Structure formats: C-alpha cells, structure tokens
Amino acid sequence: MLEIKNLSFRYASRSPLVLDGVDLTLKDGEIGILLGKNGSGKTTLFKTILGIRKPDGGSIRFDGEDLLKMSRRERARRIAYVPQSIHFGALSVFDTVLMGRVSYFGYKAGREDEAAVEAILRDMRLEELAARNVEELSGGERQKIAIARALAQEPRLLVFDEPTGNLDIANEQLILSEARRVAAEKGIGILTSLHDLNQALDLGGRFFFMKEGKIRFAGGPEIVNESVIREIYDAEVRVLDIEGKKIVINRNGGQKT
Ligand code: ADP
Description:
single chain, alpha/beta, Rossmann fold
C-alpha cells in the first residue's frame, strides 16, 4: 500500500538532512510503529507523507501511484491524520466527525455523509456522545473522536503522531485497542509514532527504529533487543521475556516509560 523509497528532506538548503534515505513499506491493514529519540525525524516523515512538506529526493507511492503528485483531496481519500487532540471550537461530536467527510461533500454535507457518520459513531460506540460539544469531553474521548473523524474520510491509512502522549493509562489502552481494531477489522493501515517501547510491543506490528533521519532497524517485535535500544536511544535497558511477551525495563529495575 505505502511504499517510501530513499526519501530525503532538509528544512533549509544548507541545514543537515532530517530525512536521509528513508525506506519504509506498509501493507494493507498493517501497523507500522516509528520509534526513536526526539529529533530523529519521525514527525518530519509524517509531514512528507501528509503532503505538508515536500521531500528533496526519493519517492512515496500509494498503491503504485505517486503520492507526491496527488491533489490534497486525492490524498485525503487515502490517508487521514489523527491529531492528539481536536480543537474545533464549539462543535458537536456529530459535526466534528462530519468534517472528516469534507473531501467528499465539498461545501455541503448530504444524506449519505450523515449516514456514514452515523455508522462510524455506532461502530465506535460514540452514539451517546453525538450531540455533545467536543470541548466538554475528556482527553480520551476527544482522541477517539479524532479517530472517528479520520475514519469518516474513508482512508486506507491512518497516521498518528504520538497518540497516547496526553492520555492516562486507561485511555492509552482504549486508543491503542481502537487502532488495533481498525487495522484488523477494516484492513486500514496504521502508521504511528510511540515513545513507550512497552506500548509499542503491546500494539505489535512492524517496528521502524529511526536515528538521525535514517531507519536503522526495521522488523517485527523480534528485532527489539538491548543492543538495538542502546544504539537507538543511548539507553541501558533489559528486555525480558515474560510468558512469550517482551517487556523493556530500566537497568535499575524500573519500568521503562
Ligand atoms: P521527531 O518527531 O522524531 O522528534 P522531528 O521530525 O520533529 O523529530 O525533527 C527532526 C529534526 O528536524 C530535529 O532536528 C528538529 O529540530 C528539526 N526540525 C523539525 N521541525 C523543524 C522546522 N520547522 N524547521 C527547522 N527544523 C526543524
């Protein structure tokens, strides 16, 4: 579905490369997790995929088509961005999600757009919140509505930048399980960055470890080990295997966050 080849980008002509030969592929319904220190280039990579920044070299193809040549509307029907939080002012949940369909309806929503929103709210068990003002809701609920709005775009790929950054542990689990469900049930690809390695291991999928604008290691959970983490984060951790599940802890015994 998504095929990125040898992508490079710098913010200014004389500044260093922030993306330096990035290769990344993701299949339908696959979950890809970008990991790496702050400043390693994760957000910049998302920006090039979302068309906010134009790469200096390389290619991004979506089902074989050149994503970099697509109009914003064409891209929006393939890829939706899920922000950490939505601030649309005093809109209802229903209208916020309806906004996700703007690339379909142009300037005025039709009956089929409303039906699509109703179906998504039902599916995500958000119907009871439909008439509520988004601003009154909790962080976890707002994030869920951000996912609903992205789904209203009927994309093939959802892009999340640190989706659990502002959430407590219960809402973290809620959002990660929602992402997993969307990928498994709808075959929608997920590309997300995460800070917490245990969250990433919990979510599962393909791991892309970035450092200084390069993807240094890519593969399934089996690639997560102490030397990879040392290389990527300059951090000393232990990776334990508990009942077949990997857990990353600090060398001093505390759970790595
Ligand atoms: P990450 O998401 O992994 O934290 P970013 O993609 O945000 O990394 O940043 C990668 C590098 O690009 C960093 O060195 C950062 O300082 C730089 N950078 C990010 N945004 C800008 C910008 N708008 N202008 C110039 N440099 C930027």
